[in-house]
Design brief:
It is a single chain. By secondary structure, the protein is an all-alpha fold. The protein has a domain of 137 residues. Helices cover 61% and strands 0% of the residues. The protein is built from 21 helices and no strands. The chain is globular. It starts with 13 loop residues before the first helix and ends in a 21-residue tail after the last helix.
């Protein structure tokens, strides 16, 4: 097993007792000035994104800002608003990349965990007030929760049937989702029901309440990431930088208000709680007797992970990798694995049944898990493969069989993803792979090979891997992918049909302003430093 895989409280390392930098020292005076500039640069970006969202974001149909003095001007100046928003996006991404240089493991001096946390607060604070952007899913949350509040079943009817097409909450839902039932778990809809009881059909207050839930989920991620990173021998600062300060997290969980924040947060917190009494073991033993409270913490952790699955079902995969760790701690035999699987299965069934029946919604959510598959998007590799095969058939004169090709390719993907996850579980059980790394890759495989893929789905893989993958190659690859997706996907709330000139003008303006801003701070941009390939891994005893 890789050092630090199952470090429990009984074998805490010096890095755990002195949280922050692993083997790096504190920043010197020049580097602290650089950090201040990076923080302010990113904060200005957040402010610009917030301002731009007033006109470029996915505003409610009845936009309360429209008639306000000054602020209402942005909703009438789409190109200017988009330029503001894109400038904010570019500046946040550049600030994050610069922060990565100061938090890179292996540096002689690096950012500490408290400094990283304060930076996160500075960047997130303005984003709390943005108009939802990058997605309109939060309006679906409100409408589906209202269906629950009215005593109807959100798993059999969509907002249009249950609320009516003219209901203020229905009007905010994208047309493609107005007729579809909810794909979300009973815990999330129960929380949404409470939100709707408090806010009624007031869209702005409802969005604010759902953003508070997303921020709660992000707080869980920030709490769990450095703790898990220390247990798995990874620099906690690097984990926070990649897993919490990531622009995709800021844009899609905070600004976009996606419920992945709550699901991933519960999943990671549950994983961390389950390991609180787990002793450190190696493949050859010794395997100590049960520690006091150890079984209780396993049950608590599994229950919290199950609550994450009751928000969005992919979180349930974490139980498999947690079970592998417990089985290895018991001796690593197949008998141990089956015994642990049975125990965790009981916890999962009890908690999920209590949540489903206690919410009054039952298990209807199981039948709607594949609702998103009704959308055929090129972003999903298996769907894109089906499109390509179907169009090739048309070119060859075989007829239009695109739908059949997509169905076939998605079926193949539905097999490949779980098979990869199963292989990763087996490798983790055989001590060939860190379980948290296997969890991240497994979630990525299941979602990438799924019927539909959205940019924020990447976070299911990136956030666990930030705490479990201990090499700079992964860090660099994840940095490139995250920055590329963050810049490529604009914070728009409209399709701009008939106004295609808006986007290029906005991009040109944003690039020009960003270049001016970079020129102004160029003397304070941290320089990249070479570090060895394994530098992300922190020393463990």
């Amino acid at each position: 097993m890789v050092a630090g895989d199952t470090v429990g409280d009984a074998t805490r390392t010096r890095a755990e007792d002195e949280p922050g930098r692993a083997d790096s020292g504190p920043l010197d005076e020049r580097e602290r000035r650089q950090l201040d500039v990076v923080r302010r640069f990113g904060t200005v970006g957040s402010l610009l994104l917030t301002i731009g969202s007033l006109g470029a974001g996915a505003a409610p149909v009845f936009n309360p800002v429209f008639r306000l003095p000054v602020l209402g001007l942005f909703s009438r100046m789409t190109t200017v608003s988009l330029a503001f928003a894109f400038t904010g996006v570019f500046m946040i991404v550049l600030a994050w990349l610069a922060l990565g240089r100061l938090s890179r493991p292996g540096r002689a001096r690096a950012v500490s965990v408290p400094q990283m946390a304060r930076t996160l607060v500075m960047w997130i604070a303005p984003l709390v007030f943005t108009v939802p952007s990058f997605s309109r899913d939060v309006y679906s949350y409100l409408a589906q929760s209202e269906i629950v509040a009215m005593g109807q079943d959100p798993y059999t009817v969509g907002p249009a049937q249950a609320l009516g097409i003219n209901h203020p909450l229905t009007q905010g839902v994208p047309t493609m989702w107005r007729e579809t039932p909810s794909p979300y778990g009973p815990l999330f809809l129960t929380l949404g029901k409470a939100v709707n009881w408090l806010t009624g059909d007031h869209v702005v207050l409802g969005v604010a309440a759902h953003r508070a839930l997303a921020l709660l989920g992000l707080a869980m991620v920030i709490w769990a990431l450095p703790r898990l990173a220390r247990r798995f021998g990874v620099s906690p600062v690097s984990a926070l930088w990649l897993g919490a300060a990531n622009p995709l997290v800021l844009f899609h969980l905070v600004v976009g208000v996606h419920n992945e924040a709550l699901a991933i947060g519960l999943m990671l917190v549950g994983f961390e709680l389950a390991l609180r009494r787990m002793p450190r073991v190696t493949p050859d033993g010794p395997f100590p007797p049960w520690q006091r409270g150890e079984l209780l913490w396993y049950a608590v952790g599994a229950a919290v992970i199950t609550l994450g699955a009751a928000v969005k079902i992919p979180a349930a995969l974490a139980l498999g990798f947690l079970g592998v760790m417990i089985a290895r701690r018991m001796g690593g035999s197949w008998k141990n694995l089956f015994a642990v699987a049975g125990g965790l299965g009981v916890v999962f069934a009890v908690v999920l049944t209590a949540t489903s029946l206690g919410s009054g919604l039952g298990y209807g959510w199981v039948a709607t898990l594949n609702t998103a598959a009704t959308i055929k998007s090129w972003m999903a590799p298996m769907t894109a493969l089906g499109f390509g095969a179907g169009w090739l058939g048309i070119v060859l004169g075989l007829g239009n069989h695109i739908d059949a090709a997509i169905t076939a390719s998605r079926t193949v993907g539905a097999v490949i993803g779980p098979l990869i996850a199963a292989k990763l579980l087996l490798d983790s059980f055989r001590w060939k792979l860190r379980p948290l790394t296997g969890l991240g890759v497994g979630l990525g495989a299941v979602l990438v090979f799924g019927a539909t893929v959205q940019p924020w789905y990447l976070l299911w893989a990136a956030v666990p891997l930030a705490a479990g993958a201990g090499n700079t190659r992964f860090r660099t690859a994840a940095m490139v992918v995250s920055a590329g997706l963050a810049v490529a996907l604009g914070p728009t709330g409209a399709t701009f049909d008939g106004r295609v000139f808006v986007l290029p003008y906005a991009y040109i303006g944003a690039i020009a302003v960003t270049l001016l801003a970079v020129t102004a701070v160029r003397k304070h941009i941290p320089r990249a430093e070479w570090t060895p390939a394994g530098a992300v891994t922190a020393p463990t005893s």
